[in-house]
Design a protein that fits this description.
By secondary structure, this protein is α/β, with parallel strands linked by helices. It is 41% helix and 23% strand.
């Protein structure tokens, strides 16, 4: 686990939207949100990209999942609520996923219970 100061310093080098999201996640004082913030603060060469096929195998109907990176197209068989930094065009068009912003997810579930981090 990296320190709070390191995350703060790394966040300054990101885009303004991503830096704001990292700051919001850090303020929540829950371990799950801190883990997501530390993953988002990683260098660009270590960014995460996950396909919908992998999300399908790791989630169930109606689950909330967070991808601290990009969601790529794939096959998904059930409805999932997803929060991610970015989505590919084909992933956005999939009818089985509902896209939620990090801010809305934190408002809906501030403790982070039942949220799956998919890396």
């Amino acid at each position: 686990m990296i320190s709070n100061t390191t995350i703060k310093e790394r966040a300054r080098r990101k885009t303004p939207e991503l830096a704001e999201t990292i700051a919001l996640l850090r303020k929540q004082k829950k371990e799950i949100w801190f883990a997501i913030a530390s993953t988002l603060a990683r260098p660009r060469r270590k960014k995460v990209s996950v396909s919908l096929t992998k999300i399908n195998s790791l989630t169930k109907q109606g689950d909330y999942a967070v991808v601290p990176g990009k969601v790529l197209a794939g096959d998904i068989e059930h409805n999932v609520h997803l929060s991610a930094v970015s989505f590919s065009e084909k992933a956005k068009q999939d009818k089985k996923i509902s896209i939620i912003s990090f801010q809305d997810l934190i408002k809906k579930n501030p403790k982070g219970t039942g949220v799956k981090i998919i890396i």
